[in-house]
Amino acid sequence: MSIRPIKRLIKAKPTLEGAGVHLRRAFGFGNTSEFDPFLLLDDFRNDIPSDYLAGFPWHPHRGIETITYVLAGTVEHGDSLGNRGAIAAGDIQWMTAGRGIIHQEMPKGDQTGRMHGFQLWANLPSSLKMTAPRYQEIKAPEVPELTDDDGTVARIVCGEFWGKRGPVEGIAADPIYVDVAVPPGERKRLPVETTRHAFAYVFAGDGKFCNASGPLAVPTEGVGWADTAPPKEADNRSLVLFDSGDEVEVQAGEDGIRFLLVSGKPLQEPVAWYGPIVMNTQEELQQAFQELEKGTFLKS
Ligand code: CO
Questions:
Q1: N or C: which end of the chain has fewer CB within 10 A?
Q2: What percent of the chain has pLDDT over 70?
Q3: How many A from CA of 61 to the centre of ligand 1?
Q4: How far is the CA of 180 from the centre of ligand 1 (A)?
Q5: How much distance in Å is there from the Cα of 137 to the middle of ligand 1?
Q6: What does pTM read for this prediction?
Q7: What are the b/e assignments for 271-286, b being 16+ CB within 10 Å?
Q8: For residue 169, what pLDDT is reported?
Q9: Distance 252 CA to ligand 1 centre (A)
Q10: CB-CB contact of 180 with 227 (8 Å)
C-alpha cells in the first residue's frame, strides 16, 4: 500500500459564468492534463440569489460529459432531447453531450436563498465524442450512502467504492466520484486505484491530506486573487491534487472534513477546447462552431 503524496493544493478561484453566475472554479480551462480525464470543476455555492438566478441559459455542449451534484436549492434544466425537470438537494444529473446537446441550467435557491452544487466536466475519448447524447438523473434516495465503523460517511455518486456501485452507469472515463465526510479528529485512508488521476475538493470543515503541511503550500495558482492565497491546510474550497499511489490519507480537523473524492483513468488524447465544446483537433472545433452558426449542430 502506498499513500498518494500531494502534488498541488489549490484554492478555488472566483469566476463569473453563464449569464452572470458567481461561482468558484477549482480547476478548468488552461492546462488540465494533470486532471485528465476531467476538464473542469465548478463549485456554485451562494447565499445571494441575485448572484446566481441569471443562470446558464440555452447553450451547446459537444465532446464531453457534465455531472451536476446538488447539495442545496434546486437546478431547473431543460435540453434538446426533451428532458425537463429540476435537480434537488442530493440529486445527480449526468449529461453525456456526445455529438451535441443544447441545454439550460437555472439555479434556484432554497427557502433561505441558499444554493449549492458542483459541476464536473469529464472528457470523452475521441471514439465517443460524436456518440448519441444521453441524459441520466438520479434522485437522492437512489444514491448509496455507506457508513464505516469510525463514522465516515461516503455517498457514491458514480463508480465503485467500498464494494458498492453508484447508480450512474456507462460513463466513458469510468470515474469514481464519492462525497466523503470524515468525523472530527479521525484519520482515514481511502482507496484510489493506482492507474487513476485523483483529486479531492474540500467543501466543509478542514483537515490535512497525508503530508499536506509545510512544503506543500506551493503557489501554483491564484496569483492576483486577493482571497485565493495558497492554503497551508486543506480547508474550505481547497482542491487537493494527488500524485500516484493506491490510497489517500486524510486527518480530519476538529469540525470534521467533507470533500468530493474523484478519480478517473487518463485518456491521454489531444484537447482542443473552446467554451462548452471540447474536441481533439482545431478542425473539429471549427466544424462544431460552423454547425452552430448554420443550425446543423444537433444531429438526430
Ligand atoms: Co452546460
A1: C
A2: 92
A3: 7
A4: 25
A5: 15
A6: 0.91
A7: bbbeebbbbbeeebbe
A8: 79
A9: 34
A10: no
